[in-house]
Specification:
The protein is mainly α. It has seven helices and four strands, in the order ββααββααααα.
């Protein structure tokens, strides 16, 4: 292999093979330089930190807060706490009532309804207990796995709106078949209507229901139990029609 004149522009070769070699080297070098990692500034633009804002009241401007702002629980309301504590006790009696279904009726409609009420209210009791615990408030009774089966014998101070009396609970426990089904539906409608009263009283009390979790929960209780009341009223009406000679 021979090389001809050398200059500042590079070597020149008299051989076609050498020319090809030099050209390929230039291409590879150019490719390698292009593949080197680029500075971060060249790859991405600076991302501004997320803005933290506090919506203003109607007619007022939104307020921009420092990026270090952290969420905090809303101020406690005594009525909010009492509502949650009372609703735990209220739900517990409903679960106690549904526990009686299995050994007292084979009616599939009553069994399905009881299962729905028991499942939803047991879950809601856990939610309410967690809500109270996060705020350092006492939980008035155990969770569903260990809740008391003597709720109906509690003092009048523990009786929430719509809760069945000791006499009503005794009649329910001592009945079976169609009579149990009737007493269960009548009693649970009364019980659900009491829960609606509790929600209404909560929202009508000044300064209550400001907590978003509590507001959503109470609203769900209201809508859910209204729907179940309608189902129970229809079942009760059908029972009365079927009973006619």
């Amino acid at each position: 292999m021979t090389f001809a004149n050398s200059s500042a522009a590079g070597f020149r070769s008299e051989s076609p093979f050498t020319l090809t070699f030099v050209g390929l080297g230039t291409v590879l070098l150019t490719f390698a330089i292009g593949a080197l990692p680029q500075p971060v500034e060249a790859q991405t633009s600076e991302v501004a930190p997320p803005a933290v804002v506090r919506p203003g009241a109607p007619g007022q401007a939104t307020q921009k807060l420092p990026a270090s702002t952290r969420a905090s629980l809303p101020p406690e309301s005594r009525k909010d706490i009492e509502f949650m504590q009372g609703m735990i006790m209220h739900h517990a009696q409903a679960v106690e009532m549904t526990d009686l279904i299995e050994s007292r009726t084979e009616n599939p409609d009553i069994r399905r309804l009881g299962s729905k009420i028991s499942g939803s209210q047991a879950d809601e009791m856990k939610f309410m207990a967690r809500w109270l615990e996060l705020r350092g408030q006492p939980i008035p009774m155990p969770l569903p796995t260990g809740y008391s089966h003597d709720m109906h014998s509690a003092s009048n101070q523990m009786m929430m709106p719509g809760m069945l009396t000791a006499e009503q609970m005794a009649a329910l426990k001592n009945s079976t078949g169609a009579e149990f089904e009737r007493l269960f539906l009548v009693g649970m409608i009364q019980h659900h209507e009491g829960a609606l009263t509790m929600v209404k009283e909560l929202f009508e009390s000044p300064g209550t229901g400001q907590d978003a979790e509590l507001f959503n929960f109470a609203s769900d209780v209201d809508s859910g139990q209204r729907g179940e009341i309608k189902i129970m009223q229809n079942l009760l009406a059908r029972m009365r029609v079927e009973k006619k000679p």
